Amino acid sequence: MSILVTGGAGYIGSHTCVELLNEGYQIVVLDNFYNSKPQSIKRIKELTGKDFPFYECDILDREGLRKVFKENNIDCVIHFAGLKAVGESVKIPLKYYYNNVTGTIVLCEVMAEYGCKNIVFSSSATVYGMPKKMPMTETDPVDIAGITNPYGRTKLMIEEMLRDVYRSDNEWNIALLRYFNPIGAHESGKLGEDPNGIPNNLMPYISQVAIGKLPVLSIYGDDYPTHDGTGVRDYIHVVDLAKGHVKAVEWINLKKGVDAFNLGTGTGYSVLDLVNSFSKVNDIKINYKIVGRRAGDIAVCYSDPAKAKEVLGWTAQLGIDDMCRDTWRWQKLNPNGFDE
Ligand code: NAD
Ligand code: UD1
Q1: Which atom of ligand 2 sits closest to the CA of residue 230?
Q2: Does the CB atom of residue 82 touch ligand 1 within 6 A?
Q3: Distance 331 CA to ligand 1 centre (A)
Q4: Coil, strand or helix: which one is 119?
Q5: Strands 181-183 and 173-179
Q6: Is 220 annotated as catalytic?
């Protein structure tokens, strides 16, 4: 069985390629390197000792996609390709809608042309909007009005669009994977997150403070109704998340139609919990200061991962200390990310 991984050079995609190859799947990888580097493809091959076809291609390029499908017998697509910077999406929304929504339309049209109707989509906990209760379960209402940015809205629009595709043609099988907060890196230290410029997300910021690239972490608020006043999130190790995709492909093969799954650990940690764990595990001090809340942030967000366990047979195995240890190994071994 051959799986096309779009956005396979990126952070979550590259880790997923490794897990798929380790499980014996054939993969074909596509990326336009908008937010990634060719070195990650090289590292996937080094780590697994396996080769696979790679296409430098944009999902908006219909002819380019046709070539990929023509030259390979693709059974299933794992669709990571997308833009994901929340702040940027507020500034240039049309680029986000075009890339993410139109890109997915073109991809699905070409898939259908070639008779491939199996897709795993990278969605996000952001589709729940402003949650009314915790933990979040898949039966909670999704809420476009509660989503504070265009990036998040593209995720919900694509989810709804894919559900419509299934309604129109029951031959499709679609897994909508709602990620919570992926962090960590491959334990080899060869793959990890390589953000452009100053990171927006917490873990890459912490590790850049740790290595001395940034002077101090700003903690956005210590007056939330949480155990220490800082925001609580469901951090999930990227390798656990990658393994969730392998399970989703197995589920797709059972031809169950369309469904959504939370991929999280079910446990929430605060900003200070993460900072303290990083300091303890890696024996390194993180300078931080408390500043005001970040606009659009919610106090607490964590998953109920029971459905993924029951239906996909998947549970996260790695804990917060593993996430901190592996992030630091990646950062230390690759101070400039994939730039060798
Ligand atoms: P990433 O930016 O590292 O990976 C995305 C990859 O897609 C990049 O390699 C990029 O070059 C590629 N890409 C973007 N647009 C493309 C296009 N038009 N054609 C071809 N390739 C294109 O991001 P990631 O963190 O690995 O995220 C993967 C997916 O998971 C994204 O869809 C993202 O929105 C989603 N997601 C990520 C998070 C997170 O916290 N990282 C959370 C929820 C959902
Ligand atoms: C953010 C996005 C979300 C996206 C997710 C993963 C926003 C409002 N939400 O979620 O849509 O799906 O990233 O890409 O941007 N924090 C600090 N200091 C920092 C950075 C973060 O204190 O420098 C805090 C935040 O206030 C939050 C926690 O750390 O409490 C996690 O933040 P972050 O990593 O940005 O993830 P989310 O806010 O959950």
Answers
A1: 30
A2: yes
A3: 20
A4: strand
A5: unpaired
A6: no
**Which residue among the candidates 151, 205, 269, 288 is catalytic per the annotation?**
151
Question: For residue 305, what is the enclosing H or E element?
Answer: none
Give the ligand whose atoms come closest to the C-alpha of residue 103: 1
- Ligand at minimal distance from the CA of 86 is 2
C-beta 124 within 6 A of ligand 1: yes
Structure pTM?
0.98
Which tokens is 144 given? 């476009």
pLDDT tens by residue, the chain, 340 residues = 799 999 999 999 999 999 999 999 999 999 999 999 999 999 999 999 999 999 999 999 999 999 999 999 999 999 999 999 999 999 999 999 999 999 999 999 999 999 999 999 999 999 999 888 999 999 999 989 889 899 999 999 999 999 999 999 999 999 999 999 999 999 999 999 999 889 999 999 999 999 999 999 999 999 999 999 999 999 999 999 999 999 999 999 999 999 999 999 999 999 999 999 999 999 999 999 999 999 989 999 999 999 999 999 999 999 999 999 999 999 999 999 998 7
Angle between helices 38-48 and 11-22 (to 10 degrees): 20
